[in-house]
Every structure is written in C-alpha cells, then in structure tokens.
UniProtKB/TrEMBL annotation:
Domain Flagellar basal body rod protein N-terminal: 5-35
Chief location: other
Compartment(s) of residence: Bacterial flagellum basal body
Highest taxon, organism lineage: Bacteria
Pfam name, any one: Flg_bbr_C
Protein name: Uncharacterized protein
GO cellular component: bacterial-type flagellum basal body
Keywords assigned: Bacterial flagellum
Tagged with keyword Cell wall biogenesis/degradation: no
Organism: Ureibacillus massiliensis 4400831 = CIP 108448 = CCUG 49529
Amino acid sequence: MFKGFYTVASGMIAQQRKTEIITNNMANANTPGYKADQSTIRSFPDMLISAIGNTNIPTEKNLNFQNAQEIGGLNTGVYLQETLANYGQGSLMQTNLTTDVALIDGTLPIDEESGNQGAIFFRLEHPNGGEVYTRNGNFTLDGQGYLVNGNGYYVLSNEGERIYLPNDDFQVAEDGTITFADVNVAQIGVSFSANPDVLVKQDNGLFRTIDGALLPSAYNQEGVAFGLKQSYLEGSNVDSARSMTDLLTAYRAFEANQKVLQAYDQSMQKAVNEIGKV
C-alpha cells in the first residue's frame, strides 16, 4: 500500500515541475531571443515481485526447500529526468532601431557524438570575467558609447574587444561588420556551440559553458552559415498554443494522481479505524 503512495507522489512532483517549466515558457513568450525549455519525464526502474515460501518434501527427514513464485512487475514511479532548451530559430520582428540586431540561422552542422544541431550566439563580456552568450540582440549604447545588452553587459567583437560607437547612426552588414561614416569599426562577435545542450542556461536569456571555457568564433567555421539583420529582433520560439495544451495536460495528470492519492488515503484510514478494531 505504501509503495502506491510513493508512486503517486513521484508522479505529482514530476507534473508540478513540468507545469513550472511550461509556465515560465509562457511568461517569456514575448521575450526577444528566449529559447523555450523542454522537459523529459522518465520512469524509475521496475521491480519484479516474487513470493518466497517453503515446500515440504514427504520424506522420512521431512525435508523442505525454499521456492520463489513470480507475482509480477511493480512500477516505482516517474521523475523529471532533465530540462533542455529548444534552440530553434524564433520569428523575426522589425523594430526600426539601428541598435537591434537579429541572428539568422543558416546551415548549422549536426554534432556526430550527440546527434544535436549546433547553435550560434552573440558574445557578451560578463562583469565577473569570461563570456556569456545570448540570442537576444536588443542592444543599446551606454553613456560612454559602448554597445551593451539590456543587462549592461558589453557586446564583444570577433576579436573579443568592446565595441565603441559615437552614436547610433551606424550600419550592420549581413556578415556582422559594423560601419560608421563609411569606416569599418568592428565585426560583431558570434560564437558557435557544436552541442548547445551542454551549455548552462542562466537568467535573462544568457548561456554559459560549464567550465567557463570560451566558445569558438562562428566566422569561418567549417559547415556553419548564418547572417545578421539590423533593425530586427529574433522573437521567442515559444509556441503559445502548444504550451497551453501541454499545461492543461500536465494539470490533468497532476489531478489524476491527486485523486489516486486520496483513494489510497481513504483505504489506509479504513484499515486503521475499522480493520484494526476486529
């Protein structure tokens, strides 16, 4: 009976976490460059139940031996195995702001070891050192004239340097080259991750490598083709309609487990209050 409690409780916990993930996706449906999280639910290993008993042999010494009779398998519940980001391209939105830049995926190779498609990101300088990466190209110029993102992190060039611009009257070519007054200023830094699932997702649409190592430049990377588009932003790749359906499904599954838990509780209550009196 108590095994049933644990099985149902594990299902409720898994569905609760799935609901939280879907809710967070829906809350960021309008966040530029946001990559929706996807969860995978997996069952714990099944247990094989057997009944162990003694069998007497009609002999003078009354010998007996133990035997095991298989009863069947028992499922021990489920758990949320992992949460991975969906790095698919989001739709483009025109903003008419020269400081907004969108990344457009072209040809991105498949990683042979993981089977996942690679992904490209803007390079940002982290205040604590190292680099972080993002798909959100909602940039602006700070008070000193440096190109920064919404959190104030400096946008880096392909050489890893901060990008200084006198004002926002500049042009960004498809290959990321920034031109001001017909003079090439820098090339916006874009990094490539062969297996983006190993990246750590942080707040505000930022990603970082596990060990803090720098991702290689996407420029001149074999098999990688992409483009940049000025005055556009890449929208979130959250499918609101699908997310709403998944949210209702997770809620119904949680509710079903809750009713089973209540049934177990009522059975235990009868076992304690009624059978115990006999």
